[in-house]
Specification:
Layout lengths: L16 E7 L6 H9 L4 E9 L5 H11 L3 E6 L5 H10 L9 E5 L3 E2 L4 H10 L5 E8 L16 H6 L16 E3 L7 E5 H6 L12 H11 L3 E12 L9 H19 L6 H24 L1
Parallel strand pairs: 1-2, 1-4, 2-3, 6-9
Antiparallel strand pairs: 4-8, 5-9, 6-8, 7-9
Helix pairs in contact: 1-2, 8-9
């Protein structure tokens, strides 16, 4: 897209979604991501928060910002992490009085024109008390297991490595399926709910912050669900491939933080020590697999 009169057209009456996109070395996907977001129904504002990209991401974002007044960006001089950047993006939406819904969209997610508005329609039935994800698939149409998840069961993880897989099957009989957690790659919720739970936990650097957010949404009395009738392509992990060790380290660190925050106080010292050993004992093997991939 380029800067034309069409880009400056008035917002539609139902444009009340503020979109936050966090980038890091996302040059290979951010062009398509922003093109689709700018064309999406219901979008009132887009905030891109860049975590020190060095691959041309910012140049692409700047071009889109020059063409579309709804799009503004923050260029962080360092990489404070996904959770911090998401909170920055929401804070930067404060001057858009028309924003009542938040959508967090990864730079490697490609929405259709009606994806976000359709998810918003589902969310409205919960009267401001719902966080909704989408049916995420890769470029070959294979479903992302992280789109529908249960809470981590650390006791089960100690008994069986298979318990570390948190995905739950799609229920094809339901257009809206309640789950414990959805993927942070794409989620939509009311701005008032996000503020009520104080946003993302800044203590997570990368991974598990979406599990944490969904758990606190549920603890606040709200619903977490997946819109099974909204399919969105998610080219997973594009920006992570250049730093596999960094990513794996923070995956394991995030899981340990989640355990300490929600479970440790209810467990004895032996259980806590066992979970610590399990999480960090897996790290060398997961890191090696990531490097080999």
């Amino acid at each position: 897209m380029s800067g034309t009169d069409e880009d400056a057209r008035p917002l539609a009456m139902d444009a009340d979604i503020g979109v936050v996109v966090v980038t890091h070395r996302s040059a290979s996907t951010i062009e398509a991501c922003l093109e689709r977001l700018r064309a999406a129904d219901g979008v009132a504002a887009i905030r891109v928060v860049d975590n020190r990209s060095d691959d041309g991401t910012l140049a692409i974002v700047q071009r889109h910002a020059a063409a579309d007044p709804r799009l503004r960006f923050i260029a962080n001089p360092d990489n404070p992490g996904f959770a911090v950047a998401c909170n920055q993006g929401v804070a930067a939406l404060a001057d858009d009085a028309g924003v009542t819904w938040l959508a967090f969209v990864n730079p490697d997610c490609f929405v259709e024109a009606d994806s976000l508005s359709h998810i918003r329609t589902h969310a409205r039935q919960f009267d401001g008390n719902g966080l909704i994800g989408a049916d995420l698939v890769d470029e070959d149409g294979v479903r992302d297991a992280a789109a529908r998840r249960r809470d981590p069961d650390f006791g089960a993880m100690l008994r069986s490595p298979a318990a570390t897989r948190l995905g739950v099957p799609m229920d094809p009989t339901r257009s809206l399926q309640q789950v414990a957690a959805v993927s942070g790659a794409l989620m939509l919720l009311p701005l008032i709910l996000f503020r009520r739970i104080s946003g993302f936990d800044d203590g997570y650097r990368l991974h598990a912050e979406d599990l944490d957010l969904c758990r606190r949404v549920r603890e606040a009395g709200a619903v977490v669900a997946v819109a099974n009738d909204v399919r969105v392509v998610h080219a997973r992990g594009v920006s992570s491939r250049s730093r596999p060790l960094f990513v794996e380290w923070h995956k394991h660190r995030g899981l340990w933080r989640y355990f300490r925050k929600f479970e440790a106080s209810r467990r004895g010292p032996a259980m806590c020590a066992a979970v610590f050993a399990m999480i960090w004992g897996r790290f060398p093997f997961a890191a090696l697999r990531a490097v080999l991939r």
